């Protein structure tokens, strides 16, 4: 036997042994390797809720898309405007955020959370006096029940009292709030 063929015998033996094996069959059941299909019988998740979840995950561009879809499906309301404003605030678009949150407070019967979030935007823009008034509006509408709104008002009052001082202040945290469950923290100057 030529020497080149003796080296191929182990390879040939493995190929012959494997030729009797067949490839595994893919299952068409749910345990297959592919993602399950869409269940068209289920109700879709509310776009507003998706938008709020995306804001909590700091996915602001996707949140804006979710709120826009919700507005197309259900019409524009205060919660959608507030969500759009909050997402724009997260992206550092303070002018757009202020516009949307002001629209939510003027065009609709806004709840305290929207007033609070507008005040946070105003604080970020350095409009401390207007922010104080807006925090007070939120606090009054809430009857002082929200600790987040109360803490934000305290921070704004302390900042306006200490604005005459020239020494650097420690970083302050203002909290955005959402109607229902959840709130978002925004550090001053973080944008």
Query: How many beta-strand elements?
Result: 2
Share of β-strand residues? 5-15%
State the shape.
elongated
The CATH class turns out to be Mainly Alpha
Query: What is the number of independent domains?
Result: 1
Helix content: 55-70%
Q: What about the largest sheet?
A: 2 strands, antiparallel
Determine the number of helices (DSSP H or I, runs of at least 4 residues).
9
Query: What is the helix/strand order?
Result: HHHHHHHHHEE
CATH topology: Serine Threonine Protein Phosphatase 5, Tetratricopeptide repeat
The helix-and-strand class reads mainly alpha
Architecture, according to CATH?
Alpha Horseshoe
Q: CATH homologous superfamily, by name?
A: Tetratricopeptide repeat domain
Compact overview of the structure:
The chain is mostly helical and 191 residues long. It contains 9 helices and 2 strands.
Name the descriptors.
191 residues; mainly alpha; single chain; 2 strands; 9 helices; Serine Threonine Protein Phosphatase 5, Tetratricopeptide repeat; 57% helix
Description:
With 191 residues, this protein is mainly alpha-helical. It has one domain (47-187): Tetratricopeptide repeat domain (Serine Threonine Protein Phosphatase 5, Tetratricopeptide repeat). 57% of the residues lie in helices and 5% in strands. The radius of gyration is 29 Å and the shape is elongated. 29% of the residues are buried.
């Amino acid at each position: 036997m030529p020497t080149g063929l003796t080296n191929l015998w182990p390879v040939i033996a493995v190929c012959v042994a494997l030729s009797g094996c067949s490839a595994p069959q893919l299952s068409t059941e749910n345990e297959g390797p592919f993602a399950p299909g869409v269940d068209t019988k289920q109700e879709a998740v509310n776009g507003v809720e998706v938008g709020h979840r995306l804001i909590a995950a700091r996915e602001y561009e996707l949140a804006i898309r979710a709120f826009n879809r919700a507005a197309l499906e259900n019409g524009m309301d205060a919660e959608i405007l507030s969500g759009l404003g909050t997402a724009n605030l997260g992206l550092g678009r303070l002018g757009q955020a202020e516009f949307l949150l002001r629209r939510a407070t003027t065009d609709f019967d806004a709840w305290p959370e929207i007033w609070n979030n507008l005040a946070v935007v105003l604080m970020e823009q350095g409009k401390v006096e207007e922010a104080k008034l807006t925090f007070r509006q939120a606090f009054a509408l809430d009857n002082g029940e929200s600790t987040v709104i109360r803490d934000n008002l305290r921070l704004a009052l302390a900042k306006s009292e200490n604005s005459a001082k020239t020494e650097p202040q420690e970083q302050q945290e203002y909290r955005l709030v959402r109607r229902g469950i959840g709130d978002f923290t925004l550090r001053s100057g973080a944008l």
